[in-house]
Amino acid sequence: QVQLVESGGGLVQAGGSLRLSCQASGITFSGKSMAWFRQPPGKQREYVAAINTRGGTAYADSVKGRFSISRDNTNSTTYLQMNTLKPEDTAVYYCGAYQPESRQYGYWGQGTQVTVSS
């Protein structure tokens, strides 16, 4: 059974930092591209950052230079370091694992709330 469990969310003031973690089980983690998405209040889920199996990374323009995605294959965990947070970063953050057979991020965690106060 595939499980992705996010943690590390919370309330932070604008300009602050948070580090999100996503612990995976039930998948061959080192063979999966991983990503972070977020869903702001009243809006659709949006892409934030991704990391492939070789450690290559990509970011949404809105977070480039402020957020950093990384992975630890030994511990089946992916991280999202978020710096210089803004109120518009407020959202539920979700971790996703890519399914090549369906060409989409088909495995999801339950999400972790990030709230940035101004």
User: How many strand segments?
Assistant: 11
Per DSSP, the total helix count is 0
Which residue ranges are poorly predicted, with pLDDT under 50 across at least 5 consecutive positions? Answer: none
Strand content: over 45%
Bulk shape: globular
Indicate the percent of residues in helices: under 10%
What is the CA-atom radius of gyration, in angstroms? Answer: 13 Å
Spell the H/E element sequence.
EEEEEEEEEEE
Mean pLDDT: 97
Structural class: mainly beta
Largest sheet: 7 strands, mixed
Query: What separation lies between the terminal Cα atoms?
Result: 40 Å
Q: What does the model show?
A:
Helices cover 0% and strands 54% of the residues. It is mostly beta strands and 118 residues long. Strands 2, 4, 5, 6, 9, 10 and 11 form a 7-stranded mixed β-sheet that branches. The chain is globular, with a radius of gyration of 13 Å.
List the helices and strands and how they pair.
Blueprint: E1 3-7, E2 10-13, E3 18-25, E4 34-39, E5 46-51, E6 57-59, E7 67-72, E8 77-82, E9 91-99, E10 104-108, E11 112-117
Parallel strand pairs: 2-11
Antiparallel strand pairs: 1-3, 3-8, 4-5, 4-9, 5-6, 7-8, 9-10, 9-11
Question: What are the defining features of this structure?
Answer:
118 residues; mainly beta; seven-stranded mixed beta sheet; 0% helix; 54% strand
Quick overview:
0% of the residues lie in helices and 54% in strands.
